[in-house]
Write a structure and sequence with these properties.
The protein starts with a helix and ends in a 27-residue tail after the last helix. The chain is elongated. About 55% of the residues lie in helices and about 0% in strands. Helix 1 crosses helix 2 and helix 1 crosses helix 3. The chain is built from four helices and no strands. The longest helix has 25 residues.
Length: about 140
C-alpha cells in the first residue's frame, strides 16, 4: 500500500519542494517552512540513493553506472503517471485488462484453433475453482 500511495503523492511532493525552493530563491521567506523543506529535500535525496543502492545490490554481478541515478526522478514521475492512470482506469473501466501483446508460445494451440473447436471464445477467462473446503466457514450455513 505504501508504494501505491507514494507513487500517487510523488508529483505533489515535487511541486511542494519546487514551490519552497522558488520562494527561497525569490526571498519570500514568509510562506516557507524551512525545516519542513529541508526534511523533504533530505527524504527525496535519501530515497533516490536507497533506490539506487538497492538496485546495485540486486544486480547479481552486473554493474549499474552512477549516471543512472540522475534519471531516477524522471523514472519515478513515469511511475506516478502510471499510478494515476491506473487509478483513473480503476474508476472508469474497473474490469479492463490491458495485456501486453506477444506471439503465442511454441507447441501450444493457437487461439484461432481453440475458437474453431469451440473451446474458447474471444473474451474467455477461467472459471472460478471453488471447492467446499476452500469456502469460508460462514458459507456452511448455505447448501452448496
Amino acid at each position: 500500500m505504501g508504494i501505491v500511495v507514494s507513487s500517487l503523492v510523488y508529483p505533489f511532493m515535487l511541486l511542494w519542494i519546487g514551490f519552497g525552493v522558488g520562494h527561497v530563491i525569490l526571498g519570500q521567506t514568509v510562506s516557507v517552512n524551512y525545516p519542513l523543506l529541508a526534511i523533504d529535500c533530505i527524504n527525496v535525496v535519501l530515497g533516490f540513493l536507497s533506490f539506487h543502492g538497492l538496485g546495485r545490490s540486486t544486480a547479481a554481478g552486473r554493474e549499474i553506472a552512477a549516471p543512472v541515478l540522475r534519471w531516477l526522478p524522471i523514472y519515478w514521475l513515469l511511475i506516478a503517471a502510471a499510478a494515476w492512470r491506473a487509478l483513473w482506469q480503476l474508476h472508469s473501466a474497473p474490469f479492463l485488462w490491458e495485456k501486453t501483446p506477444h506471439s503465442p508460445a511454441e507447441g501450444l494451440p493457437s487461439t484461432a484453433a481453440l475458437q474453431a473447436d469451440g473451446r474458447v471464445h474471444r473474451n474467455s477467462w477461467p472459471e472460478p475453482m471453488i471447492s467446499a473446503s476452500s469456502l469460508p466457514i460462514t458459507s456452511r450455513s448455505r447448501p452448496l
